[in-house]
Task: structure prediction
Amino acid sequence: MSKVAVVFWSATGNTEAMANAVAEGAKAKGAEVSVLGAGEFSADKVSEFDAIAFGCPAMGAEVLEETEFDPMFTAVETSLGGKKIGIFGSYGWGDGQWMRDWKDRCDAAGAALVNDGVMANNAPDDAALEECKSLGEALA
Result:
């Protein structure tokens, strides 16, 4: 059985709904899943999991949330080489540049990305939630 972490930050609940769908997909494939807030995750936990899904909405000028999520992600980035990961999040403006920048960071860290990022404009619709479930399945 694989161990999957779903690590996220959410202000409005949109990214949290996506995180829950990722967890549901991973569990459906038999994975042991831990859903954690960004403040509960650190570089020393990376090795505890076979795969990790990171979720964060676009903030400000299309960047990762800067107070809690980005500092955590920056701290774990160097530990992601070869690690199977996926990324997801919601946005309310822009065209998804934050997700493309985030994917580039993951690629530069040597992470084994299973997707190009799942995005939802505001609240995730059924299609976005299905994409999240598929992400969870791919990580399991």
